[in-house]
Amino acid sequence: MGNFMKESGLLCNYRHGVCRKLLIIIGMVVVVQLAGVAVSYAQQAGTNGRSEQDLAVKVFLDVERRYQEYIKTEIPYVNYVRDRKQAQVYIMLTEQRTGSGGTENTITFIGQQNFTAMNDTLIHVSQQIDSEEIIRRGIVKTLKLGLIRYMSKTPAAQYLTINYRKRVETAEVIDKWDYWVFNIDTNSRLNGEEQRKNLSLRGSVSADRVTPHWKSSFNFSAEYDRRDYETDDGKISSYTRSQDFRGLVVKSLTEHWSLGFYGNLESSKYRNIEVLGNIAPALEYNVFPYSESTRREFRFLYRAGYSSLRYNEETIYKKIEEDLFDENLSATYEIKERWGSVRSTLEGSHYFHDFNKNRLELNCNMDLRLFEGLSLNIYGSVSMIHDQLSLPKTDASEEDVLLRQRELSTQYDYFGSIGLRYTFGSIYSNVVNPRFGSQRRFRGRF
């Protein structure tokens, strides 16, 4: 019994010793963690006790979502905010196609708050063959250049370094293609089930040439669509086919005026057109200089043309062929600003032989930022149609209507959509966490 008590006492002393050591280790870990937090806070504290996040340049990105995460990862030293009114620098990226099939990315820097009136515009041009990675690297490089002037006026300037790599002078490049760019596109689709089959064939060939003074574009396309249905009354088959050639040549006259020439040759079973040929000279005036086209445009386009038509079937006006003269006037307004963007086109046309044979079309798309976190998108189009000269004289069958094998008589058509998006929470959006992929792609079920 004595030995047992002795051993128990030793065991208790041993356990107490282990407990004391564990408490000492835990205490040291807590002290280290607290010290780390203190050091981190001390490192982050800036002028007048403000954190580095608060002192960093606040930036609002008006950029496509596919670029935003990459930009935030590659440029982590600025502060990205969710609301444009909280930003010191508003960055907007707009795009337009180049003559070689690439993209001209115009990046506009707009200073706000203490950077008011400090604005800048930089351009990055990508080639048609450039991969997504090459394009976004170029955009990020351009963004870094544009942000330097703003960062240089903050405490972050002490961390900036600028390196200059002299470009090697080369001789002027001689383009063996003389700026011509060619594209060949083909597409086929086959799908079916027990009672339904569908075959679609489409193809196009295009040639484009764009220089500062001339713009030329030519395109030929053709498509064939066949559908077969099995019903209790037998097999129903329908098909549509069309061919279309379009040409455009434009001469730049001044920063506001352009002169052009349209040409068109087409055939369409759906529209009852065996062959249509059209030529039309045109004149365009842009209220704003063309050099500002990535930000704003207000264009008036007038064209007057001659058309020669031959129909597959006699029309409702008892014509199997005819020659027509027409004119067309359109006005397009497009603007992209911090409050959103607007694009709207109003177009009217008529035939000279009968002014009652006319058409009026309006389409508009607006993306408006109403206030912090709330944006409104509206799209709508409406057409008043009184110029369907090619409608067949024979009545459309039920199959024609249901299978959309021919154009139907109508005096109007319309389309509209409206949507709201509201975002709220922290104004800061610097953090990028790629784990588990994008949340938008997650569609799991529990």
Describe this structure in words.
The protein is α+β, with helices and mostly antiparallel strands and 446 residues long. The protein has three domains: 2-42; 53-161, Double Stranded RNA Binding Domain, CATH 3.30.160; 253-422, Porin (Beta Barrel), CATH 2.40.160. Helix content is 19%, strand content 47%. The strands form two sheets. It has a twelve-stranded antiparallel sheet, with no helix packed on it. Strand 13 (321-337) and strand 14 (340-351) form a beta hairpin. It starts with a helix and ends in a 24-residue tail after the last strand.
In short:
With 446 residues, the protein is an alpha+beta fold. It is built from 5 helices and 17 strands.
Write the layout of secondary structure elements.
Layout: H1 2-44, H2 52-55, E1 58-62, H3 65-74, E2 79-80, E3 89-97, E4 103-111, E5 120-126, H4 132-151, E6 180-193, E7 196-210, E8 214-231, E9 234-252, E10 257-268, E11 273-286, E12 296-311, E13 321-337, E14 340-351, E15 354-371, E16 374-385, H5 398-403, E17 412-422
Parallel strand pairs: 1-2, 1-3
Antiparallel strand pairs: 3-4, 4-5, 6-7, 7-8, 8-9, 9-10, 10-11, 11-12, 12-13, 13-14, 14-15, 15-16, 16-17
Key words describing this protein structure:
Porin, five-stranded mixed sheet, 47% strand, 446 residues, Double Stranded RNA Binding Domain, 3 domains, 17 strands, alpha+beta
* Second rung of CATH, namely the architecture of the largest domain: Beta Barrel
Q: Tell me the number of structural domains.
A: 3
Q: Provide the gyration radius in Å.
A: 33 Å
In whole angstroms, how far apart are the ends? 61 Å
Return the CATH class of the largest domain: Mainly Beta
Largest beta-sheet details: 12 strands, antiparallel
Provide the β-strand percentage band. Answer: over 45%
The structure class reads: alpha+beta
Which shape, going by the Cα principal axes? globular
Query: Averaging pLDDT over every residue, what do you get?
Result: 81
Low-pLDDT runs of 5+ residues are 4-8, 37-48
Q: What is the helix fraction of residues, given as a range?
A: 10-25%
At CATH level 3, the topology of the largest domain is: Porin
Main sheet: strand order: 6-7-8-9-10-11-12-13-14-15-16-17
SSE order, one letter for each helix or strand: HHEHEEEEHEEEEEEEEEEEHE
The number of helices is 5
How many β-strand runs?
17
